[in-house]
């Protein structure tokens, strides 16, 4: 797979650079990729079902570089995202060149790019897009979580920058692994509240697992794989299907209930982001094994300890899965 991924990267780069030299595509990465050679392939992170995720260095900075997601094929289906991005594009005073339009169209066929691009200025809990060239785009590199890691995230990867020896940075440098875990947990809760309340429509996460999240240096939890994230209107369309039992109304981690008289799934989701995060992230993470033999109720122990150590805002008291 790694060799195939590298070959695909090289071939796609050559193809994009040929189109760039012909003036067919453009982007703020193109010159660095095609002329200056400042985009360096490092390793393949994911290559399956047409989706390619590659770690690269761009101007000495680590980034996750995504090729076209060939598995979609049908373009942007999340109409809420399309409308939001359309409003942003209309605010531009200058007209678009043909190369810009071609590149933008290629990017918009990738729903994950559209999602990240729309939420750039609206959320700290999604990965930042760094740049693009044709259908390629790069996002910030963040180390993903792992189900097999005792702390889910590798806390050693959370480096303290040189300018943080004083104040908050100094306190952060003295945090224990337990304290860092608590703050990460609070960031998960903040993210849940944010996705539920801070947009026009609730944002549903239908594929919740450690590998789909990462943390920044300040311990902010970030959603890095949002292929299965949908705003409420799209979520209702997905859930409202024919059914003969509740089992037919499950869409990955998003569920509804079957109306047996109508034989249709309810368009309203019956579980929540918080419930799934509690079940698939918090419960395995804060298990009695990790907290010690005296922790008969590990989530309660975590919550009480965190509440006493950290000033909680009202939104952070939404831990209802105890």
TrEMBL record:
Subcellular location: Endoplasmic reticulum membrane
Key word DNA repair present: no
Gene Ontology CC: one annotated term: endoplasmic reticulum membrane
Domain FAM69 N-terminal: 12-61
Pfam families with a match to the protein in the record: PIP49_C (PF12260), PIP49_N (PF14875)
Top-level division of the source organism's lineage: Eukaryota
Domain FAM69 protein-kinase: 104-295
InterPro entries linked to this entry: FAM69_kinase_dom, FAM69_N, Kinase-like_dom_sf
Keywords: Disulfide bond, Endoplasmic reticulum, Membrane, Signal-anchor, Transmembrane, Transmembrane helix
Keyword Endoplasmic reticulum set for record: yes
Membrane topology, from the record: Single-pass type II membrane protein
Family of this protein: Belongs to the DIPK family.
Name this protein carries in UniProt: Divergent protein kinase domain 1C
Source organism of the structure: Neolamprologus brichardi
């Amino acid at each position: 797979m790694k060799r195939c991924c590298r070959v695909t990267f090289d071939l796609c780069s050559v193809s994009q650079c040929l189109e760039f030299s012909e003036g067919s595509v453009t982007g703020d990465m193109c010159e660095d990729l095609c002329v200056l050679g400042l985009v360096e392939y490092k390793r393949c992170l994911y290559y399956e079902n047409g989706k390619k995720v590659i770690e690269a260095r761009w101007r000495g900075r680590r980034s996750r570089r995504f090729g076209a997601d060939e598995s979609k094929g049908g373009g942007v289906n999340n109409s809420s995202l399309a409308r939001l991005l359309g409003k942003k594009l209309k605010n531009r005073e200058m007209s678009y060149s043909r190369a810009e339009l071609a590149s933008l169209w290629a990017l918009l066929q990738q729903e994950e790019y559209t999602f990240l691009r729309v939420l750039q200025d609206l959320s700290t809990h999604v990965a930042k897009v760094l740049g693009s060239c044709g259908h390629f785009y790069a996002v910030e590199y963040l180390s993903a979580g792992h189900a097999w890691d005792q702390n889910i995230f590798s806390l050693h990867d959370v480096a303290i920058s040189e300018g943080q020896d004083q104040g908050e940075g100094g306190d952060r440098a003295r945090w224990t692994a337990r304290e860092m875990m608590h703050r990460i947990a609070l960031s998960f809760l903040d993210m849940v509240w944010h996705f539920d309340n801070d947009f026009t429509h609730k944002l549903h996460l239908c594929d919740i697992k450690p590998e789909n999240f990462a943390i920044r240096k300040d311990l902010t939890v970030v959603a890095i794989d949002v292929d299965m994230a949908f705003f409420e209107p799209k979520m209702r369309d997905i859930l409202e299907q024919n059914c003969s039992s509740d089992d037919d109304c499950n869409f990955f981690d998003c569920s509804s209930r079957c109306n047996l008289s109508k034989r249709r799934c309810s368009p309203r989701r019956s579980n929540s982001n918080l419930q799934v995060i509690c079940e698939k992230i918090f419960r395995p993470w804060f298990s009695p094994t990790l907290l010690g033999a005296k922790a008969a109720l590990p989530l309660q122990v975590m919550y009480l300890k965190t509440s006493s150590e950290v000033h909680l805002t009202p939104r952070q008291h939404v831990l209802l899965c105890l």
